[in-house]
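PROTEIN DESIGN WORKSHEET
SECTION A - STRUCTURE
LENGTH: 444
TOKENS:
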């Protein structure tokens, strides 16, 4: 019996080690994620970002190929030929074989700088693709910032709801005592009880919103959803009350020099200019230098050895060819026109991107001013509501006001607290957006 008990205890210990309870596993494996870490992880995992990295690699190959087009081409060939012919007596065929070896090279000397311009354009296209990748990363960073703040906001809503339930639970206990002593009516008691039930529903919804915010952040990061995920709580108080007076023009001038979408648009316009140069090159003659060397062997000359024939048959050659375009069915002319249209389109796109950036910055500055005013007003409203609530709470405890009047004042406090919380996170987000356009890294 003792042996059996010892065996069961050992098995239980082993199972506990190999398969810990879910709660313990969660507590052990919980990983804290800062905003910076969330952004970096999203940059590594996001499909759009990873695709942009592949686009960079593709452009690097294209650039390398464009540079290589100016190099000479070298080709070699070897042929083996068998010949048969009918003999004069018509009784059979006689035959011989031959070997030919050729080595040739060609280099383009001139074609209106077409290859040079193609190489320069490929280099510009590579830079543009890199800036596009940066723009994608910035967009992902802003999305992560918003989602990260949503998690913090939802968590504070949960904490506020829990505090309200704790307070109302105490008030319900007091109301129950007074009901027992017939100091208040049943209706007053039920008002407080109904308020507690309503606050429990609010807490349930707040917890649901919190989980949804967590899941949204993990999915945006391309991180598999896990209960072990948790975020670092930054000190947001230092982000508040900055009382900025943003200058949209100043921020815009800074953004023009650093934002990747602007640089990409400028490079695309420059690249479009090369399209016209490349198209115009087809109006000019192209000059090619060709060189080669060949040798061969044939069994028809049996009196000469194989290697003697190869040595004696060496025939080098060099030549210069000029291709002069005369009439190309208006294709070159129309290609130039299409390139000119492309330049205008690139210029319009550049103007549009700069205009959109200016509008976004103007809106960001307006949002900061508005958010600062809303936060200041929210603090004032909350302070006033809290003062009224504390006074009403004292009266309620002393039985000087009924539950209906007290709950009206309490709900005003809850609403003021909710508005203040919302204005707080709105202000933090507005500051971060303005910093983003000014070139300040997104972090806490």
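SECTION B - SEQUENCE
RESIDUE ASSIGNMENT:
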């Amino acid at each position: 019996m003792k042996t059996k008990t010892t065996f069961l205890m050992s098995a239980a210990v082993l199972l506990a080690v190999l398969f810990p309870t879910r709660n313990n596993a969660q507590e052990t494996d919980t990983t804290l994620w800062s905003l910076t870490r969330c952004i970096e992880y999203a940059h590594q995992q996001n499909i759009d970002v990873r695709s942009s990295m592949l686009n960079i690699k593709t452009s690097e190959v294209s650039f390398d190929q464009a540079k290589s087009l100016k190099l000479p081409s070298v080709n070699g060939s070897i042929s083996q030929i068998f010949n048969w012919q009918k003999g004069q007596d018509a009784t059979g065929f006689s035959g011989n074989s031959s070997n030919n070896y050729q080595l040739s090279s060609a280099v383009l000397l001139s074609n209106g700088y077409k290859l040079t311009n193609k190489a320069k354009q490929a280099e510009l296209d590579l830079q543009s693709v890199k800036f596009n990748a940066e723009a994608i990363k910035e967009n992902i960073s802003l999305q992560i910032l918003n989602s990260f703040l949503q998690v913090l906001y939802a968590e504070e809503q949960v904490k506020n709801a829990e505090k309200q339930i704790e307070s109302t639970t105490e008030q319900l206990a007091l109301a129950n005592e007074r009901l027992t002593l017939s100091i208040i009516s049943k209706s007053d008691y039920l008002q407080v009880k109904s308020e507690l039930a309503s606050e429990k529903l609010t807490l349930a919804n707040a917890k649901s919103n919190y989980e949804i915010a967590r899941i949204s952040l993990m999915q945006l990061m391309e991180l598999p959803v896990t209960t072990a995920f948790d975020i670092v709580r930054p000190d947001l108080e230092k982000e508040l009350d900055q009382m900025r007076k943003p200058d949209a023009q100043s921020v815009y001038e800074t953004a023009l020099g650093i934002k990747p979408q602007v640089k990409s648009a400028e490079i695309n316009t420059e690249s479009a200019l090369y399209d016209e140069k490349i198209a115009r090159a087809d109006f000019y003659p192209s000059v090619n230098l060709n060189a080669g060397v060949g040798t061969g062997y044939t069994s028809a000359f049996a009196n000469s050895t194989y290697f003697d024939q190869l040595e004696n048959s060496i025939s080098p050659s060099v030549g210069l060819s000029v291709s002069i375009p005369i009439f190309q069915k208006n294709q070159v002319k129309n290609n130039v026109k299409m390139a000119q249209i492309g330049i205008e389109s690139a210029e319009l796109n550049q103007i549009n991107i700069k205009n959109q950036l200016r509008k976004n910055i103007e809106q960001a500055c307006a949002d900061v001013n508005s958010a600062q005013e809303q936060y200041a007003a929210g603090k004032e409203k909350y302070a006033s509501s809290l003062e009224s609530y504390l006074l009403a709470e004292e009266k309620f405890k002393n039985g000087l006001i009924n539950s209906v009047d007290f709950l009206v004042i309490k709900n005003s406090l809850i609403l003021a607290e909710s508005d203040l919380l919302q204005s707080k996170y709105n202000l933090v987000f507005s500051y971060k957006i303005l910093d983003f356009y000014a070139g300040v890294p997104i972090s806490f």
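SECTION C - NOTES
Residues 34-81+95-437 form a domain with the Outer membrane efflux proteins (OEP) fold (CATH 1.20.1600.10).
Confidence is low (pLDDT under 50) at residues 1-28.
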